[in-house]
């Protein structure tokens, strides 16, 4: 399904900022209401503002990195699970840099607000990604300091989540770019997706046995659903081109829309595609070997022309004889 026509991604424009079109999901008011309802008015609104600003900066990191590596990006969609930066990368290297730029922004924000954390009594609780470091009763006594600590915590959570090598999150995007370089776009993407699904399933198992925290369950199932969607798009021919960037939990991103969707192609299994790739590599090596033999034979014939057969080494004589036999077997010799 085209993500721009999916009701989950319906949005309205919030203007153009620094050349980037900012769109807000119609579901965002739900989050704006839910945070104060669950956490209290002051803490809930503060967390919403921190989340919105941090995710927006995260997305801008993706946009700037894509543009700086000969890619393109000019639109951000803010929605309840984070954000989507619509970018198109130019190469696997561009994809790695673009994917890493988002978590790098979170890391820089953590460093910026670390001094406020160190002078507060928030450590070590602020390092727990599963629990907001304040309650409605404790937040706001030192409002500026508390907001700085809250900003550190949220960006710390985003950093940890996006470093998980689960496609289509940032860590998974980086993993995919390496897989694509080694195995090709189709196989590399599918393997990265399956690794991400395995990581999500492992997260569910660990959470059920040891942690029993609903947030991890939600993150894991979000990864699984998005991965299944990617697999469906690949199987039905709806997947984007090789520069497709996907979605990540705190700040996802997808490639630019194409004017016409690609026509569905017959779907090969992972094994069939691997075998096809092996055949192609074998054929390429054979062609290279044949070309090298032809060059070597040309050099030997030139030597014979200049100095005669007696000038050939035993190895060169053997090569010349083998070539003569090959031509005779193909019907090129005398009857």
From the structure above, extract its key features:
335 residues; alpha/beta; 2 domains; five-stranded mixed beta sheet; 61% helix; elongated
Shape: elongated
- End-to-end C-alpha gap: 65 Å
Task: List the total number of helices.
Answer: 9
Largest sheet: 5 strands, mixed
Number of strands: 5
- Helix content estimate: 55-70%
Structural class call reads alpha/beta
Give the averaged pLDDT, no decimals: 79
Radius of gyration: 28 Å
Q: How much β-strand is present in the residues?
A: 5-15%
Model regions low in confidence, pLDDT < 50 over at least 5 residues: 238-264
- Number of structural units classed as domains: 2
H/E element sequence: EEHHEEHHHHHEHH
How are the strands ordered across the major sheet? 1-2-3-4-5
Give the topology.
Elements: E1 11-17, E2 20-25, H1 28-39, H2 41-68, E3 72-79, E4 82-88, H3 92-118, H4 143-163, H5 170-183, H6 185-211, H7 214-236, E5 252-254, H8 270-307, H9 314-329
Parallel strand pairs: 2-3, 4-5
Antiparallel strand pairs: 1-2, 3-4
Structure, described:
The model is unreliable at 238-264 (pLDDT under 50). Helix 1 crosses helix 2 (41-68) and helix 5 (170-183) runs antiparallel to helix 6 (185-211). The protein has 2 domains: 7-258, no CATH class; 272-329, no CATH class. The chain has helices at residues 28-39, 41-68, 92-118, 143-163, 170-183, 185-211, 214-236, 270-307, 314-329; strands spanning 11-17, 20-25, 72-79, 82-88, 252-254. The protein has a 5-stranded mixed beta sheet, covered by helices on one side. It is of the alpha/beta class and 335 residues long. The radius of gyration is 28 Å and the shape is elongated.
């Amino acid at each position: 399904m085209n993500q721009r026509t999916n009701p989950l991604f319906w949005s309205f424009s919030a203007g153009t900022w620094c050349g980037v079109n900012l769109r807000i999901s119609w579901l965002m008011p739900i989050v704006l209401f839910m945070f104060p309802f669950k956490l209290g008015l002051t803490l809930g609104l503060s967390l919403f503002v921190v989340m919105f600003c941090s995710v927006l900066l995260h997305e801008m990191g993706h946009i700037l990195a894509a543009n700086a590596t000969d890619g393109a990006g000019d639109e951000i969609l803010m929605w309840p699970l984070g954000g989507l930066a619509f970018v198109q990368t130019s190469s696997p290297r561009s994809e790695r840099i673009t994917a890493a730029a988002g978590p790098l922004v979170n890391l820089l924000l953590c460093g910026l607000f670390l001094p406020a954390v160190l002078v507060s009594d928030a450590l070590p609780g602020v390092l727990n990604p599963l629990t907001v470091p304040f309650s409605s009763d404790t937040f706001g006594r030192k409002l500026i300091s508390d907001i700085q600590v809250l900003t550190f915590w949220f960006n710390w959570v985003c950093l940890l989540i996006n470093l998980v090598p689960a496609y289509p999150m940032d860590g998974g995007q980086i993993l995919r770019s390496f897989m694509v370089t080694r195995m090709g776009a189709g196989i590399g993407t599918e393997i990265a997706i399956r690794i991400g699904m395995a990581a999500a399933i492992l997260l569910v198992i660990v959470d059920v046995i040891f942690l029993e925290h609903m947030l991890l369950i939600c993150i894991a199932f979000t990864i699984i659903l998005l991965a299944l969607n990617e697999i469906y798009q690949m199987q039905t021919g709806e997947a984007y081109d090789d520069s497709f960037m996907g979605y990540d939990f705190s700040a996802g991103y997808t490639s630019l829309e194409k004017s016409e969707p690609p026509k569905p192609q017959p779907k090969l299994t992972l094994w069939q595609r691997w075998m096809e790739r092996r055949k192609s590599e074998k054929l390429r090596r054979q062609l290279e070997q044949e070309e090298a033999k032809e060059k070597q034979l040309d050099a030997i014939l030139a030597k014979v022309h200049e100095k005669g057969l007696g000038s050939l080494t035993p190895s060169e004589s053997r090569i010349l004889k083998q070539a003569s036999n090959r031509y005779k077997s193909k019907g090129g010799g005398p009857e």
